Amino acid sequence: MQSNLAYERPRQRMVSEQLLARGVNDERVLDAMLTVPRHLFVDSALASRAYHDCALPIGSGQTISQPYMVARMSQLLELQGHERVLEIGTGCGYQTAVLSRLCRRVYSIERIQPLHDRARKNLRAARHANVMLKCADGRLGWEDYAPYDAIIVTAGGFASDVWLQQLKPGGVLLLPEGEGGDHRLVKRRKQANGYTEEYLDACTFVPLLEGVNHY
Ligand code: SAH
């Protein structure tokens, strides 16, 4: 408990200096960022840097996204609390934990087995009961629970057609689009005929890859 308390002040500063100062103003998102213990989602050796303004390694060549990007993407989904959200790229489960406080249920897919296992452990420890995880290629979506109110992709690449198919009409698909680490956030809203889209921040994500890695 003592050690968790020690992270409260850095977490509050992260919210005021990195999020509020840059225009994140959705109260529910700010509250989730203030509540989820980011230091418990990274290796204990990196815990002291968990609230720094950067991405950090989480093993298997992947990263936990910068706090601002997690908050920005969460805000762009415009969640009210009743939604079912599909996340592609669970990683260590931090963004999943934030989303789980903002909607009714999160379904999250990770293609690297050791990260999937680790996210399961992290989320169980944090008692996030409204989360379902699976290890698979997220480019195929998750048909069993479709359609979703929103789909968020946390690896950079190009959209799979399946994602729009698995969205409800009016639902939002948010992804970092592009190649070679040169991405731009794009927000698509499904319409009766096709979708509308908005190109937003330039950003850099780890790549969206095909298939499953068991090791
Ligand atoms: N949201 C995560 C960010 C992890 S980085 C967090 O908060 O930690 C992006 C993750 O997407 C990586 O773990 C990577 O393995 C995963 N990924 C890449 N391509 C994928 C795919 N096709 N299906 C599922 N996960 C994928």
CATH architecture: 3-Layer(aba) Sandwich
Structural class: alpha/beta
Outline: globular
Q: Kindly state the mean pLDDT as a whole number?
A: 96
Number of helices: 7
What's the gyration radius in Å? 16 Å
Distance between the termini: 33 Å
Key attributes of the depicted protein:
Rossmann fold; binds S-adenosyl-L-homocysteine; 28% strand; 215 residues; globular; single chain; 28% helix; alpha/beta
SSE inventory with pairings:
Elements: H1 2-6, H2 8-19, H3 27-35, E1 56-59, E2 62-64, H4 67-76, E3 84-88, H5 94-100, E4 105-110, H6 113-125, E5 131-135, E6 148-153, H7 161-165, E7 167-179, E8 182-190, E9 195-203
Parallel strand pairs: 3-4, 3-6, 4-5, 6-7
Antiparallel strand pairs: 1-2, 7-8, 8-9
Catalytic activity: [protein]-L-isoaspartate + S-adenosyl-L-methionine = [protein]-L-isoaspartate alpha-methyl ester + S-adenosyl-L-homocysteine
Family: Belongs to the methyltransferase superfamily. L-isoaspartyl/D-aspartyl protein methyltransferase family.
Subcellular location: Cytoplasm
